[in-house]
Amino acid sequence: MNLSIPAQRITSLAVPALVAAVALVGAGELVAAQNMKVVWAIVAAAGGLLLLYASGNPRLFCLWALMVVIPLDASKRLGAVVAKMGGENSFRFELCDIFILGLLAYQLRDVWTLRRPGLRIPRITWFYVIILVYCSWAVFFGTYRTTAAHEMFRMMKLAVLFIVVANELTTLPRIVHAAVALLAGVFLQEMVGFVQFAKQGSLGLTFLGETGSGTLDQLAADSLNDAKVFRVGALLLHPNIYGAFLACMLPFAAGLFLVDRRVWYRVFYLLVLLGGMANLVMSQSRSGWLSCAVALAVLGALMARRDRVKRRIVRPAIAAAVLTLGVLLAFAGPIATRLLDSNPIAIDGRIEYARTAWGMIRAKPIFGWGLNSYVFEAPAFTRWGARGAKEFYEKSKNWLPPVHNIYLLWWSELGVIGLLMHLTLIGWMIRTAVRNLRVESDMLFAINIACIVGIVALLIDGMLSFTLRINSVLRDVWVMAALIYAVRYWRLANPSEPLPT
């Protein structure tokens, strides 16, 4: 009697068996759990395994799942947590890491079985390694070595994310899959935002990245002069971060809506765009509004660069503009109130933080104070002095906020050398994307432009915030960089005549 089981049969049984195992273990944990994190972790694990099984394509599922969960803050912290803002505060294993490792395993298998000659390492990666080496002095010789190590660990994980995604997107369909999956993640955030707005409160999902109730209450009281206003933050930690995220991602919806001819896809892109506009207004983030307006204007200008696209997008662009204007008119009251009756405390605070940062820069302009050390070094440069600042923030039960300007933050910590390195890195990404404007595929043309304007939106927002030190936003930047390089590789493999300039 042959008792062997065919390999395909083993594969078909593996996922149901894993789900059953998770269910058995989870049954006891659900009873014993003292907090909802365990419950949700078990439910998410079982649901993920079922979706993996139902997809029929585990590799593509990992790509989609990675793009969808990129904005989430769900993670397991390892070791001590340093209570601070303005940079990473712990070592952590994040939900998205599961899918990064899954894709990496597939890629290494392809290399091992000679299905591909090796992993592609874009040249920009080596420049990023130079930045890592430069920043590492704070880990070995700085005053605050642990918190510098936290930031270094995050930076290395971002490099892995970039390399894995850039190597996964080897075909035009895969690149489009990644862009649509990103928008699926945006749509999920928008649905959470609508529920938050309807409830006018937190949903209790702080473990996924939702803004805490205390912060929401403080924002509600401080945003306007004579009234309270609820600000939507979805699962992006803070309404201002959510505003920056939407300003960065909505150009993807607008660009694909203009070039994709598939009806139901267009409906989806339009829903994401309109829902995002409504959520952007509900976030009450003025920097997000400004960044998004500039990004969409640049998107339109770049899309019109290609004649055949320009001829095709007139009607869709008019339709999208009319519907978007309708959304903005529906929220005209809240927009006007936010612009005309805002509490000046936010602007006053940003000015004060900038004054402190300039004091730090003047003291150490070349090499800075060390990676991720801003909030520890800043008190001595406040108007209260080191002791006074410490007493003030202890009394208010709050942390010293970092400067709300990413360029001053980089300069303060890393000196002018580190600032120029970061600007060069971003400029390199944009330069590569500009060269990609000659790509033959209109879909890739739109995705590439969306990446350009998404990065531009974050650069504008960076003048008023430190969102480029937030995990979810940083992951989006490096996914956009991976898309840019995937388009570059596709363009080089499928050359076309340069477009007239």
SSE succession: HHHEEHHHHHHHHHHHHHHHHHH
Main beta sheet? 2 strands, antiparallel
What is the tally of beta strands? 2
State Rg. 23 Å
Uncertain stretches:
1-15, 17-22, 27-31, 497-501
**Strand line-up in the sheet with most strands:** 1-2
Beta-strand share of residues: under 5%
What would the principal axes of the Cα set say about the shape?
globular
Can you tag this structure with a few keywords?
2 strands, disordered C terminus, mainly alpha, 2% strand, 501 residues
Summarize the structure.
The chain is mainly alpha-helical and 501 residues long. The protein contains 21 helices and two strands.
Q: Would you mind describing this structure in some detail?
A:
The chain is an all-alpha fold and 501 residues long. 71% of the residues lie in helices and 2% in strands. The protein has helices at 7-32, 36-55, 58-69, 95-112, 123-135, 137-141, 145-168, 172-199, 213-222, 239-259, 263-283, 286-303, 307-312, 314-330, 332-340, 345-363, 374-377, 385-395, 406-435, 442-461, 471-493, and strands spanning 75-78, 91-94. Strands 1-2 form a two-stranded antiparallel ribbon. It starts with 6 loop residues before the first helix and ends in an 8-residue tail after the last helix.
Layout: helices, strands, pairs:
Blueprint: H1 7-32, H2 36-55, H3 58-69, E1 75-78, E2 91-94, H4 95-112, H5 123-135, H6 137-141, H7 145-168, H8 172-199, H9 213-222, H10 239-259, H11 263-283, H12 286-303, H13 307-312, H14 314-330, H15 332-340, H16 345-363, H17 374-377, H18 385-395, H19 406-435, H20 442-461, H21 471-493
Antiparallel strand pairs: 1-2
Helix pairs in contact: 1-2, 2-3, 3-4, 3-8, 4-7, 5-7, 5-19, 7-21, 8-10, 8-11, 8-21, 10-11, 10-12, 10-20, 11-14, 12-20, 16-19, 19-20, 19-21, 20-21
